[in-house]
Amino acid sequence: MKFSEKQLENLRQSVKSRLSEKRFSHTLGVERAAKRIAQYFPSLDASELSAAALLHDITKEYTLEEHFALAHSQGVTLTDEQIQSREILHSLTAPYAVKWDYPEFASDNLLSSLKNHTTAAAGMSLFDEVIYIADYVEDGRTYPACVEVREMLFSGLETATNDFGRLSALHRATLKSLENTINKLLFQGRILNERTKEAREYILSHLTVNGE
Hints:
The chain is built from eleven helices and no strands. The protein is mostly helical. α2 (21-38) runs antiparallel to α3, α7 (108-116) packs across α8 (126-137) and α10 runs antiparallel to α11.
């Protein structure tokens, strides 16, 4: 699905009005990263990636009560595990907010990427994976782990000589980010979402099967 620059600019202004300055700055960083990555994958529509990036954290600053209310309005009951993992709630409720408040942007690609951008998932689409890794490597993130993955990703994309090499570079960066997240959560004694482990195992298996 393609969107005009006017549509995207209107969306930026709407999202800006709903997020804190810090969160909006991060959101713009994710948009920049997604557009930069899209240059290496011409099958993806950059305007759709921009819209997904702009909307990926649309419910990030919701209170628990607001998450409950939005889920309830969609006939969804949040599980105890989801409630305990507060940091991933926005990835569950963001697609509902988009359907309700921004239906013109509610493409299948966009909604799927919002659902998967925090935990990742086994068998993610290319679109999903670009939004996931763009969120991790956007230029506002200065954590050493994020800087390392950012350099790893763009170095791999820039030196790849064919589509297979570029896809491999993306997968390797995603794998590294997942391993960083898993190790961090385990070290902190926090809940590790099963979808994150499954995503790591899927990508590792995919790379191994292809002899990489």
